[in-house]
Structures are given as C-alpha cells and as structure tokens.
Automatic annotation (TrEMBL):
Protein name (database record): Rad1/Rec1/Rad
Keyword 4Fe-4S on entry: no
Species for this entry: Trema orientale (Charcoal tree)
CDD domains noted in UniProt: PCNA (cd00577)
Stretches that traverse the bilayer: none
Pfam families named in the record: Rad1
InterPro entries named in the record: DNA_clamp_sf, Rad1_Rec1_Rad17
The keyword Heme appears for this protein: no
Length: 297
C-alpha cells in the first residue's frame, strides 16, 4: 500500500439518510463522538455519564464506493453536532445529494466534498482529535435462555416516553408473560402508566418474547435520549423499534433508518418498491438500569 494513501475513500449517494441516522443519537447540543473505520463500514459512538451509549452502524453496503486501505481499525474523535451541521450543508431538500468522504487529510482532517453537482461544488474539512477511550464496555449478554425482547412501533414508543416526562425521575419498564404485556410507569408529582398488551395491541406491539416477570428502572433523561431525535422519516416509514433487556437489566434499543435514495428508480429498490436491507443504517442505544436485577424468576 502507498504510505500516503488515505485510510478510507467512500461515496454515499444520499447524504440526508446519513444526517437522519446521526441526528438520532444527537440528544444534546455539545457531544463528542468517536468514529471507527474498518473494512466492514463506519461506526460512530457517543456516550453520556457512563450510563448511556449509542452506536450508528453505516455498513459498507450503504456506500456506492468504499475503498479501505488502513491497517487495523483507525479511530478518531470529533464534534457530533459540527459533523451533522457540516453534512447538512451538502443536503438539498428533495434531492439525493451525493458526497465523498476521505480520511485522513494532510493534517488528519476528515475531508468531505460534493460529487454530483454540475453547477458548483462544496468542500469541507473537519479537524479531528485523538479520542479518549470509551469509558465502558456495554458487553451486552442475554438475561437468560429465552430473550427478553419486544418490538413496538417507533412512533408509539416515542409518544409513550414523551408522555411519561418527569425530568429527574425514572421510568420502570416491566415485562410479564401472562398476559403478555409491557408496562412503562413513571413516578413524579403523581404516577402515569402506559401498557402495551401483545394481543390487544398487535398494531403497536409487533413482537414479544418473555418467559418470566422482569422489571427495571431507568433514568428518564437517558431513556428519552433513545427516541428524542428519531427522524421524521422513521416515523413516516412506520418502522418498529426493538427493545431487549440483557443481563443485569442493561437495556438495548435498536432503530432502523433508511439511507436509500428518494427515487424509486434506484437500483437498490426493486419494482415493487421494497428496499434491500443493505440500504438501512442500524442504530443501537445501551442504557444502564438504576437498580440491580429485580427479576422474579
């Protein structure tokens, strides 16, 4: 390999899809992020207070060009807000703007430029920094032989968490097998409870797997961060979000964000309009519980 060759040169044909994916993990104004590059794609990681961590997976299949020349997996830090704002300058409403991303530049910058505009070109450089080590390893493990998991429509999940708003309070999430249901309960000046019953709400609670009663409490501000900036495109797509409770009560929340071009003529979308899985960005949140495991086995 040429020692002067960049670690990565890639092109994405829909910058708005990338903006949507990264915006989903932007829960406060000033956030530092770590980007990790590999032959499999790009992963962006953010965390808060050693209790909340989020990852955005941009697999190499999302890119129309992905040339990876690094040894190992380079990592660098940057401002998430600045990165999203920078990407937004390349996004034209109603148009699937394409960009090229290159790393590193001569001074270890992240380089971005537009590649599909005939009239003008946009070019940007972002300063990067040596990242601090991510301070905790989520090490997500199943809570038992049977997964404790459920899938709920993203719009319904966001609405439920918004309705439970009591800043500084915590939310208790309870799963029980009979009747199969999920309960969100908030304590504040009073208490509010929202129930998703598997058989009564099949349009909202899409899937449910639980073989025992389990209940954990989570800080409201961390739970809210998992849905507070879900892009409107995800809500309009009527997608589902998957929640899984792991060992020790660690909560994993997974969303899917489309990074397909808006035109149905795109080769990644077939004649029936179905998107191939490769055009999806995967987003995962990990939320630590407030208490030790209180499951009733």
């Amino acid at each position: 390999m040429d020692s002067d060759a960049p670690d990565l040169v890639c092109q994405l044909d829909n910058v708005q899809g990338m903006v949507d994916a990264l915006t989903a993990v932007r829960w406060k104004r000033h956030q530092d992020a770590v980007i990790e590059l590999s032959e499999h794609g790009i992963v962006l990681i953010v965390e808060d207070s050693n209790c909340l961590q989020a990852k955005v997976y941009l697999q190499r299949e999302l890119f129309v060009r992905y040339e990876y020349g690094a040894q190992g997996r380079p990592r660098f830090g940057l401002s998430l807000g600045l990165f999203v704002d920078c990407l937004n300058t390349f996004s034209v409403p109603g148009h699937s703007s394409a960009i090229e991303i290159r790393y590193p530049g001569p001074d270890m910058q992240l380089l971005l430029k537009s590649v599909d505009s005939l009239d003008s070109g946009i070019y940007a450089e972002m300063r990067t920094r040596i990242p601090e080590t991510i301070s905790w390893d989520y090490n997500f493990e199943p809570a038992g032989s049977t997964p404790l998991t459920f899938t709920v429509k993203t719009a319904a999940l966001k609405e439920a968490i918004d309705d439970l708003e009591w800043p500084g309070a915590s939310i208790q999430i309870t799963l029980q097998p009979a009747p199969p249901s999920v309960t969100f309960r908030g304590d504040g000046h009073g208490d509010l409870q929202i129930d998703f019953t598997y058989y009564a709400n099949p349009d909202l609670l899409i899937a449910f797997h639980c073989d025992r009663h389990v209940s954990h409490r989570y800080k409201y501000k961390f739970l809210r961060a998992t849905t507070s900036n879900i892009p409107g495109s995800v809500v309009r797509d009527n997608r589902g979000s998957k929640l899984t409770i792991g060992r020790g009560g660690l909560l994993k929340v997974q969303h899917l964000v489309s990074v397909a071009r808006t035109s149905t003529a795109h080769p990644h979308i077939d004649s029936a309009g179905y998107q191939q899985p490769s055009r999806i960005a995967y987003i995962e949140f990990f939320v630590k519980p407030e208490e030790e495991d209180t499951a009733d086995d």
